[in-house]
Write a structure and sequence with these properties.
The chain is of the alpha/beta class and 457 residues long. The chain has two domains: 252 residues, Glycogen Phosphorylase B (Rossmann fold), CATH 3.40.50; 176 residues, Rossmann fold (3-Layer(aba) Sandwich). A seven-stranded parallel sheet has the order 3-2-1-4-5-6-7, sandwiched between helices. A six-stranded parallel sheet has the order 10-9-8-11-12-13, sandwiched between helices. α12 packs parallel to α17. The protein is globular, with a radius of gyration of 22 Å.
Length: 457
């Protein structure tokens, strides 16, 4: 940590693994620049304070029942959290500000600002009433964040809900680089509750003091320029934030490190890494198709299978024939959770079969690992299109969870001429993004601007 600058930043991550990671990464970056850090968090999915002894952690009640914490409906979960956390958060933040004002000691610190996730829609009026600047961190890429606010209108228009087979692959002019079939999948998930929620995110973000993306100009320059025009607030693209502190983890899951010595025994660029993040679930049939596709590819694989990965069945693995599991382990390794950043850095990894969450997508780019795209929902479909259609550093399964498709995609990536071209483009993209983080690079400059901006409050 640089010498303390006498300023404290309050951070409030959304209670989802994919949102907690970037917020804690940002906390580490700001702490290294001299800021003291306080993290307010919910009881549900509380970050592990013991992993970050230099930060102050304050837990608030979230009002969720045990049943509600197990829901797979992310929209419902976020709605419940926003409804129940407002009063506890207001009380906690008010108490912090009062404590800072009354502190007469030599180490008195000023609370500079609040940084929270765009998914918290009640925090803007609270911060405003307390005269505290609020900055918004979004875990979406720039393009999706800007464009997803048009979804309620597109759903009302119904023009993309009924498309001909011949139109499936047409680009959506209102939402590039999505294709019409992607947009229909997103709109099918939309509800009036989500429409209202998105409208509040737009309103509260525009009223904030600034917007932070864990992306860089090199990944989405056109959308960034348009977003600056739309929002008219300072925007900071600080780049792949995990790169500032590689190897550090904010995982809510217990990591199985046994995969690392297993990887050490594999040949360079030979292993397919498979992980669908912390939320996505698949059916038993889909699980078996993926398993057969991996096995039939004849490539070694490392597969992350969370205990809740398979829909509505906690005893699914017991139903799979023992001989089949043994056959899988002859060629691959299955773990409940992995140290993903370390895995992607490993010399043995040749490709990443991913759901294309933004964190996973950016981590893969930073390590130069080509992707096989299997997006499930929401922004994942947009991220996958960037990978396959814009950057052209991966193969898109087009939603086909079939053994022959998966086997074919692995072979295309690792054994065929197409894979060589993809790897070369990925190498160039990795270098370009890497330069953004170095002195005079776009992300490095943007981060310094953010530090200066927070210090000015």
């Amino acid at each position: 940590m640089d010498k303390s600058n006498g300023l404290r930043v309050i951070l409030f991550p959304l209670s989802i693994q994919g949102c907690i990671n970037p917020m804690i990464q940002l906390a580490k970056i700001l702490h290294s620049r001299g800021f003291s850090i306080t993290v307010i968090h919910t009881r549900f999915n509380a970050p592990k304070a013991s992993n970050h002894p230099l930060f102050t952690f304050l837990q608030i009640q979230d009002g969720l029942s045990e049943t509600e914490t197990r829901t797979q409906d992310v929209t419902l979960l976020l709605t419940l959290l926003n409804r129940s956390c407002e009063s506890p958060f207001r009380h906690c933040l008010t108490k912090l500000l009062q404590s800072a004002d009354s502190d007469t000691g030599e180490k008195k610190e000023k609370i500079s600002c609040l940084i929270d996730d765009s998914g918290w829609i009640f925090t803007q009026p609270i911060a405003q009433s307390l005269n505290l600047p609020r900055l918004v961190l979004t875990t979406y890429n720039v393009s999706f964040f800007r464009n997803h606010f048009v979804l309620p209108q597109l759903r009302r228009d119904e023009m993309y809900l009924h498309i001909q087979d011949s139109e499936q692959d047409d680009l959506v002019q209102d939402f590039p680089p999505l294709r019409k079939k992607d947009l229909r999948r997103i709109l099918d998930q939309e509800t009036e509750v989500l429409d209202s929620y998105s409208a509040m995110i737009l309103e509260t973000t525009k009223a904030s003091s600034g917007l932070i993306f864990v992306s860089c100009e090199e990944l989405d320059q056109d959308s960034l320029s348009q977003t600056r025009e739309d929002f008219q607030i300072p925007i900071f693209t600080i780049g792949p934030s995990h790169s500032y502190f590689p190897g550090s983890s904010s995982s809510l899951f217990t990591v199985d490190d046994t995969c690392m010595p297993w990887l050490d025994k594999q040949e360079d660029k030979s292993v397919i890494y498979v992980s669908f993040g912390s939320i996505a679930t698949i059916g038993e049939t889909e699980f078996m198709e993926i398993a057969w596709g991996l096995r039939n590819s004849n490539q070694p694989f490392l597969w992350v299978v969370r205990l809740s990965s398979v829909e509505q069945d906690t005893e699914w693995i017991e139903k799979i024939p023992k001989k089949f599991i043994e056959m899988l382990h002859e060629k691959g390794k299955i773990v409940n959770w992995s140290p993903q950043q370390q895995v992607l850095k490993h010399r043995a990894i040749g490709g990443f079969l991913t759901h294309n969450g933004w964190n996973s997508t950016v981590e893969s780019v930073c390590e130069g690992v080509p992707m096989i795209c299997l997006p499930f929902q929401w922004d994942q479909l947009s991220n996958a299109r960037f990978v396959s259609d814009v950057w052209m550093v991966g193969v898109h399964l087009e939603g086909l969870i079939e053994r022959d498709e998966i086997e074919g995609a692995i072979r295309r990536l690792l054994s065929e001429t197409e894979g060589e071209a993809i790897r070369e483009r990925m190498k160039l993209l990795k270098e370009k993004v890497g330069r953004s983080l170095k002195p005079k690079g776009s992300s490095h400059r943007s981060l310094q601007h953010l530090v200066d901006f927070i210090s000015s409050f």
